[in-house]
Amino acid sequence: MAVGAAATKLHLSPFARRPTLHQLAAVAVLCSLSYLAGVWHHGGLTSTPTAHSVSIATTAAVTCATPSRSLPNRASPTPPLDFRAHHTAEGLSAASAPTPRAYEACPARYSEYTPCEDVERSLRFPRDRLVYRERHCPAGGERLRCLVPAPRGYSNPFPWPASRDVAWFANVPHKELTVEKAVQNWIRVDGDKFRFPGGGTMFPNGASAYIDDIGKLIPLHDGSIRTALDTGCGVASWGAYLLSRNILAMSFAPRDSHEAQVQFALERGVPAMIGVLASNRLPYPARAFDMAHCSRCLIPWQLYDGLYLIEVDRILRPGGYWILSGPPINWKKHAKGWQRTKEDLNAEQQAIEAVAKSLCWKKIKEVGDIAIWQKPTNHIHCKASRKLIKSPPFCSNNNPDAAWYDKMEACITPLPQASDIKEVAGGALKKWPQRLTAVPPRIASGSIEGVTDEMFKEDTKLWKKRVGHYKSVISQFGQKGRYRNLLDMNARFGGFAAALVGDPMWVMNMVPTVGNSTTLGVIFERGLIGNYQDWCEGMSTYPRTYDLIHADSVFSLYKDRCEMDTILLEMDRILRPEGTVIIRDDVDLLVKIKSIADGMRWNSQIVDHEDGPLVREKLLLVVKTYWTLGDEKQ
């Protein structure tokens, strides 16, 4: 009676009675029809459910599974979450994005434009110590807001390894270097191509034979040397031929008005950047490279109290090597050819030897045209020697890894503390390739705040998964020869590059200066290479450097720091025609990015995260269209 009274009091509708079998069947049929009609209305039936279809199916299921009782004094069911406007390209409302601006092509004179190493702007700065060739980026009003064009006749570079030896003339239409270095076998013109015989000023028998000579003096073949720095690299033949020995070299040379040395290196598929030893630190952390090299690089190592060798010491790992060939080494043989007096060359060598000794370096060998020094594995003896050798002193109270417009100092960067003379300061590295996946010493020692061994291992697994997803949505990613030069704009620990080590490509790992820049040291400890970068400024490289650019959370990082199109136009400048961009970020940001990209002659598409459509983070996949100077589309 109590139940019956309560039922009467609640005024249950007739439909609250127990449903019959016929009623249940009718409801099921209606639900099915409703679901099918909804799917058809929103794009038809597909074999792969999108986020949109998932939300529709969820709605139908919730509606049909809910009992048909109508309970009084109860709010109507909360509508299910609808991801249509936020999680797929198809579901995005046209009104949610601004009308794309169409970016015009820059004039022809900007075909090789490098914003922070612009030849004309550089003339405003002092020539003393080549300061004018350092980075001097344009102010806001000077920035180009146009698309840097490729030269007429531009073609995709030859695939690696053929690109090591040949490049298209139309891509870098400069003959000056072929004339200036004709007798040194650097480069020559062959019809519509450049040929790179592999020669160099100090290796007339070719870079490979020269490297073999070095290998007789230090261990190049056992995996203990992986990262190298080539200062004043020419066309980077030394770095090109080290790659076959599993040694990854960062090559740099200053921007010049005609020789385009770094540009040739990049066309060959060899890692290189524009750079110069002048007044600023090189943009690498302390203890980065296993080996540094100068082959007639014309750097005055003995001047300015040995400042440039002191900078090399900062970026060399404990136990790292410095190799010098060319003046003044073997001056007794070459003095006449170098058109210098023996006294002058002897004095220069003695000065270099004195600087090296003051840094506590040990001279390993001088054989023929090659001399090699080694940095100590720790500073126990070196600190004790300061009682006798007063200069240079050890640096105090500075960040050894700070290297973004930071000035060089005439002091020794101290190595981490060591308790024993045999201990490697900062921790010994595994040999290559084990060092790629081993926990880097900087993480194992706890010197990177908030990062644990387990976090590093999980990050490595995550990027293997993510790269696998990239290859599933970009069919060309797994195609041999399609991509060679890759850029990771926010590399963190270098997980993206590590996941691609087995492929015939290399990755330049950039660590933004606005984030946790301490991770660049980890990247080098893994046996990878990279650089510091502020993406509100231009990168120190030529146009059309990279085949593929990866941007993970870059736009979230720079959301309130500079305009989106500032970053996107720079990406377009350094991306080859028909190159690929992968932008990983929050879907709302990707919608805005896509609206800009649509005005930049990019074809783009938003696709789901590797974990499915319900994740807010998405991927914007881009292909830059092919166009060159003189195309009607301009």
Biggest sheet: strand arrangement: 6-5-4-7-8-10-9
Mean of all residue-level pLDDT scores: 85
Poorly predicted spans:
1-19, 39-95
Sum up the overall morphology in one term: globular
Question: What is the count of helical runs?
Answer: 21
Q: Strand tally, please?
A: 17
Task: Report the C-alpha radius of gyration, rounded.
Answer: 30 Å
- The helicity comes to 25-40%
Description:
- With 634 residues, the protein is of the alpha/beta class.
- The chain is built from 21 helices and 17 strands.
- The chain has helices at 2-10, 21-41, 51-65, 84-87, 119-122, 176-180, 207-215, 237-242, 261-267, 307-315, 331-334, 342-358, 380-385, 434-437, 441-444, 453-473, 495-498, 520-525, 554-557, 564-574, 587-597; strands at residues 166-168, 188-190, 193-195, 227-231, 248-253, 272-274, 289-295, 316-325, 362-367, 370-374, 485-488, 506-512, 530-533, 546-552, 575-586, 602-607, 617-624.
- The chain has a seven-stranded mixed beta sheet. It has a seven-stranded mixed beta sheet with strand order 13-12-11-14-15-17-16. A three-stranded antiparallel beta sheet has the order 1-3-2.
- Strand 11 (485-488), helix 17 (495-498) and strand 12 form a beta-alpha-beta unit.
- It starts with a helix and ends in a 10-residue tail after the last strand.
- Mean pLDDT is 85; it is low at 1-19 and 39-95.
- Its EC number is 2.1.1.-.
- This is Methyltransferase.
- GO terms for molecular function: methyltransferase activity.
- It is a single-pass type II membrane protein.
- It holds the Pfam family Methyltransf_29.
